[in-house]
Amino acid sequence: MKQSSLFGSTLRDVPADAEAASHRLMLRAGFIRQLAAGIYTYLPLGWRVLRKIEHIVREEMDRAGAQELLMPAMQPAELWKESGRYNVYGPELIRLKDRHDREFALGPTHEEVITTLVRNEINSYRRLPVTLYQIQTKFRDERRPRFGLLRGREFLMKDAYSFDTSWEGLHDSYQSMYEAYTRIFDRCGMTFRAVEADAGAIGGEGGTHEFMALAEIGEDTIVSCTHCDYAANLEKATSVIRRSEAVDSSGTSVGEIPMAKIHTPDTRSIQQVAAFLGVQPHEIIKTLVYVADEQPVAVLVRGDHEVNEIKLKNALGAESLELADADTTMRATGAPVGFAGPVGMKIPIYVDQAVTEMAEGVTGANEADYHLRHVVPGRDFELAHAGDFRNAVEGDGCPRCEEGKLQYHRGIEVGHVFKLGTKYSETLGAKYLDPNGREQPMIMGCYGIGVSRILSAITEQSHDDRGIIWPAAIAPYQVHVIPVSVKDEAQTTLAQELYDRLTAQGLEVLIDDRDERAGVKFNDADLFGIPYRIVVGKLAAGGEVELVERRSLEKQVISADEAMTCIADGLRNLI
Q1: What is the CATH number of the domain that holds 503?
Q2: Tens-place pLDDT, residues 112-129
Q3: CA 127, CA 568: separation in Å to the nearest integer?
Q4: What's the whole-model pTM score?
Q5: Alpha-helical segments (H) within 278-361
Q6: Which of these, 146, 379, 451, 547, has the minimum number of CB atoms within 10 Å of its CB?
Q7: What is the mean pLDDT of the chain?
Q8: Within this chain, do residues 66 and 156 fall inside the same structural domain, yes or no?
Q9: What is the rounded distance in angstroms from the CA atom of residue 466 to the CA atom of residue 548?
Q10: Interior CA angle at 163 toward 157 and 168, to 5°?
Q11: Is residue 548 pLDDT above 80, yes or no?
């Protein structure tokens, strides 16, 4: 490809709202252009990378035995209402009507469509298991599109769906997809980790894992163990806190000291209460009131912990959950925000496990400007609804091994695998006849990869202050040939000869045939991030060139033949 004919241009400046490195670099390098918030055009360089990622995905999906199809992006709203997700999915579901006033949705995912399709095509156990996939544009009306391709309203996704006759079969299908995802991300050159996760709006009855590209810009927090292989999204992560018995200065167990009411004027926050009473935040029991499906409930966590609303919502089996406003809190507890407590409370109380392990604590007294000291969990309030309702904290004990402590990382979700079970097959009637002629619901799994998001994730992981550094397997071109001066006949002749020979070997080569200053050419080459660069300069008459490896920026002056050999060796697995 001649660079003079390449559609798109490099930019000096990018919009101020381009916060992520990947967003800035792909705009500057001419890989993408924004049409509207969260909606992008892929220019030829970006599209070439995207197609290579698609190719890897297809190869590994096919290798795992999945079959490709293509489903409509526009879906009848009736399907979403039938599955029960029309209202649950919320405002991210883009809804529209046709000229006949029929309701449709632009698909953010395709569980309803694929389940209906399989329901109508398969009715016997003899035709199961089957796994189907597609690579297609998805639509989600993100509240705040940001970070370029990392959180857009229109994006390219690979979604796959498995249908089995048993949970054992689903386990095999799930494991097959898990292994295929591992190969895909390895081949794309990504640093990633698979973590336990929450199923979210997709739902399901079994396990789920997210594949996270490790990057500081990531919006997800990954919790992992310092000793074993335990890793989970913060939404799902659990931890261990072991009970410690405490005594006062007289040697009396604090659990035997009577509860005491203390005047605490204008002390609403944990920090204010701790300072006023001379205690630490972890000695305070924080009481928060939520509204779950229009009913108030209280949740108790330690003062140094935060409520995990996803865990709480799952435990309640609620469709909606939100923190109560001041008026609701007053009606439910008789106290303003900051002074609620579990003693004598009439609404259901959900107690985090770490609170049950406390010997005693400070709580609100359900009265303005008053708190209670020496409140003992289980003695002064019931523990009928105890469980894990908080975010794991760095330094907590690992739930899987005794030696490890938990640590945080940031990550970008690039893939997610779910065990759906019968959530959709039961609702939408996807059943088969077993060997005894009885109807049984199909056991489902679903598996998604953010294909376009991979571009940004890898750019976040693989760049320097000069530009992008593409892994060879997905680079837009593998070799960039740059004659320093197109007016020098020896340079242009040798550059063209190298281009022809490399292309004949099956390599993808971009030749910079522009009449531009050397600095402009080199800056653009750094931005593009092509793995190998051959600079044809003043030594061209003697058949020598400068070979530059983009990742290390290592340079060596060698003969043209040696440069070709080095490149062939470096790209041997791709040729």
Answers
A1: 3.40.50.800
A2: 999 999 999 999 999 999
A3: 46
A4: 0.87
A5: 309-316, 326-333, 353-356
A6: 379
A7: 94
A8: yes
A9: 14
A10: 120
A11: yes
